[in-house]
Design a protein that fits this description.
- The protein is mostly helical.
- The chain has one domain.
- Helices cover about 70% and strands about 5% of the residues.
- Strand 1 and strand 2 form a beta hairpin.
- The longest helix is centred in the middle third of the chain and has 29 residues.
Length: about 290
């Protein structure tokens, strides 16, 4: 497991850093990856539900989710992209009602359709905000008095990802060490959902997230117009959001009777196993960016 993770992690990290620091090509890499990852994530969730006896349309929903994300991003840079989004929804609606007229088991079709739609919303709403954050811009007043829009979203996205993932890393380190050093082991926090999570690991993860946010502030790389108090609050809130997202996926996997959401990424499981920390953090970080201080 570790040797596979040791190969997968550097590759993923390298691609991620390209999206952040490659000014010209990064946004296009992010565009391509966003659709592919949303296809895989949607497919994983629906296939898990099917294992629990909940029918759906995994592949079709995955493709539509990917197309939706690609169209939204293009719509931000290319006006016709918005028209593509409306066309997708029209085709989905028209095709669904047309299919309902032709299928023999209409009740089963409706169950599959509604589960697929619900999963699409479950994925599209929180993860679409990550896209909005990445492509966002800030307005600056230049020395000659003109107003200029500068894309700062990639650095905000870097802040979000590293502070969020610091919760996972810090929680793992603190959990392992406390389990070995404390007499009788550490204290499990919600063993019925996630047996490995402990109180000590959770506190350690929070400290790592807050510490990472403060490092951004000290380096002058925190989101513009934010102070040390905002970074402290962001570190705490994103740590809690990361913890909640991980528990949400764990609860879903337990309900479906699976260990990993998939096996796309060697040593790391599926895309959902990697992105579960962001189920809530895209929303939480968007709110934090609205209340800078």
């Amino acid at each position: 497991m570790f040797k596979f993770r040791a190969i997968s992690f550097p590759i993923l990290l390298g691609i991620f850093l390209l999206t952040i620091f490659w000014k010209d090509g990064g946004p296009w890499i992010f565009w391509a990856l966003s659709g592919l990852m949303m296809f895989a994530l949607t497919l994983e969730v629906l296939q898990m539900l099917e294992k629990a006896g909940v029918p759906s349309f995994p592949k079709v929903t995955g493709i539509l989710t990917a197309l939706f994300f690609w169209a939204v991003i293009l719509g931000n840079e290319w006006p016709a992209g918005k028209a593509v989004i409306f066309c997708l929804f029209f085709l989905l609606l028209f095709g669904s009602w047309l299919a309902l007229l032709r299928v023999s088991d209409r009740i089963l079709f409706l169950k599959k359709f509604l589960v697929s739609c619900g999963t699409f919303l479950f994925i599209a709403v929180p993860y679409l905000l990550l896209v909005v954050i990445y492509y966002s811009k800030d307005v600056f007043l230049t020395a000659d008095g003109t107003i200029e829009e500068i894309r700062t979203g990639s650095m905000n996205f870097l802040f979000l990802v590293l502070v969020t993932k610091a919760m996972d890393t810090g929680g793992y380190i603190a959990g392992v060490l406390s389990g070995k050093w404390m007499p009788g082991g550490n204290h499990k926090i919600i063993p019925s959902i996630s047996p490995k999570k402990s109180v000590e690991g959770t506190l350690g993860g929070i400290l790592f997230s807050v510490g990472t946010a403060l490092i951004f502030y000290a380096c002058g790389a925190a989101p513009v117009q934010t102070g040390i108090g905002w970074c402290l609050l962001a570190g705490l809130i994103l740590a809690v959001g990361s913890f909640a997202g991980d528990l949400t996926e764990s609860a879903l996997k337990r309900a479906c009777g699976v260990k990993d959401s998939a096996h796309w990424i060697p040593g790391m499981g599926g895309v959902f196993d990697v992105l579960d920390s962001f189920i809530y953090n895209g929303i939480l970080f968007s709110i934090l960016l609205m209340i800078k201080f």
